[in-house]
């Protein structure tokens, strides 16, 4: 018994630490931009089998006590099941439906194979002590059929229930119904704070949960509980306490393997207490002379794991969203509530069923409990919950993209730029309309809600793996990507606000690059130039930004929520745009006008949302307008600032946005993008659009003009020299929603300053407007060297891969532009 207790404690500690540590490693890799460690979870699976399998195997073979040997066998089976299930996490999180399908199939196979192995190992009750524990109950039968007790015979025997009991699923017994009621209560917190994915995703989650429940039913069947049944009548306290503890550890092992990285963590807390609930149910069934099978375990465990599997997207259980009341916060709330419910159920079932000595739970009471659970779930789901399906979409990229290689020469300045934008827009729309006709018709016929794009010849549509496979086989389709869609929250994320005041004069970063000298000596402040921001949004009422909004019905677009006017809850977009065009000393080009688009929602995006905003920047359209027919290319902004990147976890591949940036350059629109914050490793500029040659990629330096440790380094994918320039990105003061200011770090903060410098250059010399190549060369030629980093390790990234051409110099660049 002491050995079993020690092995149990070791198992719990190793599993909890291993699962939490594996998730944290995944998060660090994601946050630092490193390649996903495909071998992380398979390696942990092997380690788990070795580290936990050895002591549980000894526990299954060496002790003389049948109960202890049974404990070892169940834990060993749980450990081996965990090892197999952990291998499934090699599937990328973006393919959640494929993972759920594999989980369902693997758990069902383990249940089938495991049941046969455990039966051969002698775990089920058979001749001997375990079966004999039920024999003493036999002499009680004559006592119950004595004449004085005759009137109670029908209630005690309950012949109809005995006749229908083999029907199982069609007419479950009271114990099974009470287990299902408990499972529905465990599900309530997830119905409240979570949201379902797509139809297929939800169905696969249900199948996976059922398969895991079946696996739990194999491990914790009637034979398992019989080993902990001692005495005449059976001692309920021993069964509940000892059997519940052993079952809780076994359920912990199954919980650790159920769900992608992050989704398994809630079940580690909510599932183990269920062992005591199951023990109480089996104790009540045994005392009444009607041993329960595994149906109760299947229902209770299946419903217990369905919540985190179906109501939380594992990609959103991330530290990237942990700084606000986003998905990680609500998952923690659901976990805490589920733990409280599980503990309350364990205590309640143990007390109530423990007092019902010798009486089988009444079926009518169990039916009422299930009805209450279903009604509560419906009320919560349709009330404070988030009803409906919120699955991912697909982005279908077509093979043929518009040919923009032979554009006619354009006159210098704005007139020439507008003519080029108009021609590029025409060619893009014509190509998309011609090549998408058949595919759009098929998707509409299948009611898959297609949304066409022209900047990249692509279509976003509903669909799961089957639709994706069908689309991939079509001759006009190049590839199909997953286009992420965030699930709704039970309450809006609180808006980030600044707690600082505007600077007394030009901020330090404005002076470092010489923008204030441009204002005072040249009288150039960005007037006549429009800067477009694609980000989390903009607080249009901020005093540093309100006067610069271009206005009209085509200067703001929110493809996420459809807000009619510039708004921002995150603060990221307000801060970045403030550094480009903000007044009160925070912006490089304070008299430039601005337009905005929301491509980030709660700090995450998708290929389609990024494309929505880039397309809007090429040809703005009125609120509610059709981008194909209502686009106004002559209203396109001149310079675009993009402090975002699209990593694989959001659905992008390296080339998905390449036609978009190529078209914007061909149209004479200057695109600036952030290098990323995944330094200091070389080759860490990996996510589009920063990797593209037609984008000016910007890294970050500090007050000492040294490249910051977080600034991503080159070379970019394919060996391209990146970043192109660096700008101040550490401790940058700028605007925040609500009228305040805040200091933030990142290449996101450096990027808009370079966009502001371009605005100053084109304001100083309107003939440069639309001349992207000449402007880019002037910026490089006038950049000043970044200071060497004394902490740069020997053999680190070369200077060009750290700082590109150097630190942007607004004064020198504008001087060159004027000349």
Strand content: 5-15%
Helix content: 40-55%
Count of folded domains:
3
Q: Spatial order of the strands in the main sheet?
A: 6-7-5-8-9-10-11
Report Rg. 32 Å
Structural class: alpha/beta
Description:
- With 819 residues, this protein is an alpha/beta fold.
- The protein contains 30 helices and 13 strands.
- The strands form three sheets. It has a seven-stranded parallel sheet with strand order 6-7-5-8-9-10-11, with helices on both faces.
- Keywords: Hydrolase, Membrane, Protease, Serine protease, Transmembrane, Transmembrane helix.
- This is Subtilase family protein.
Q: What is the compact description of this entry?
A:
The protein is an alpha/beta fold and 819 residues long.
Features:
elongated, four-stranded antiparallel β-sheet, Rossmann fold, alpha/beta, 3 domains, seven-stranded parallel β-sheet, 7% strand, 819 residues, 30 helices
Spell out the blueprint of helices and strands.
Elements: H1 2-32, H2 40-61, H3 66-86, H4 96-120, H5 129-132, H6 140-144, H7 153-157, H8 159-164, H9 174-193, H10 199-219, H11 222-226, H12 236-256, H13 265-270, H14 274-287, H15 295-311, H16 327-355, H17 363-382, E1 393-398, H18 414-435, H19 437-445, E2 451-453, E3 458-461, H20 465-472, E4 477-483, H21 508-512, H22 515-522, E5 530-535, E6 556-557, H23 572-581, E7 593-598, H24 607-618, H25 627-630, E8 639-642, H26 658-666, E9 670-674, E10 696-701, E11 725-728, E12 732-735, E13 741-744, H27 747-764, H28 772-782, H29 799-803, H30 810-818
Parallel strand pairs: 5-7, 5-8, 6-7, 8-9, 9-10, 10-11
Antiparallel strand pairs: 1-3, 1-4, 2-3, 12-13
Helix pairs in contact: 1-2, 1-12, 2-3, 3-4, 3-12, 4-10, 9-14, 9-15, 9-16, 9-17, 10-15, 12-14, 14-16, 22-30, 23-27, 27-30, 28-30
